[in-house]
Design brief:
Length: about 160
């Protein structure tokens, strides 16, 4: 990853979860840029830089809840991973569900990971920190520029 702070898109309609997740990410001791979308449609608007998100940065990763109004996380994940400009962005499903069908659907739509949100506050914060550590310190992430800018590909 480059030397700039990681840019994360948190997609969750629960204000309490957004606050806890944001606090856990900011407590990592290194700067983080966290953007929040309240549902899948808002996330897609952000990723496609539509309307008020015209100047939105390309995130290094997306933390995506499944159960949201308007457009749920399943639909958003399918849209993200089917779009040639967006499919290289790692998407971690972070949800209260641990239903086998949600896990299977998420991986069928190419989620990079499926993590059930722990109920305990301390466990939840620690899980967020582990996800952050993996994606910002262990894993090699693709550059923020779309693939076609790097390799001259159109697909």
């Amino acid at each position: 990853m480059n030397s700039e702070p990681p840019v994360m898109l948190l997609v969750d309609d629960d204000p309490g979860d957004v606050l806890i997740i944001s606090d856990a990410l900011q407590s990592m001791g290194k700067p983080r840029v966290i953007h929040v979308a309240r549902d899948g449609q808002e996330a897609l608007d952000f990723l496609h830089q539509v309307g008020k998100y015209a100047d939105a940065p390309r995130p290094d990763m997306v933390l995506l809840d499944l159960n949201m109004p308007r457009m749920d996380g399943r639909q958003a994940l399918a849209a993200i991973k089917s779009h040639h400009h967006l499919r290289t962005i790692p998407v971690v499903i972070f949800t209260t569900s641990s239903a086998p069908e949600d896990i299977v659907i998420s991986y069928k739509h190419h989620a990079n990971a499926f993590v059930a949100k722990p109920i305990d506050l301390n466990d939840l914060m620690e899980t967020v920190r582990q996800i952050d550590t993996f994606y910002t310190a262990v894993a090699q992430l693709p550059p923020r520029e779309p693939r076609e800018l790097i390799f001259g590909e159109a697909t």
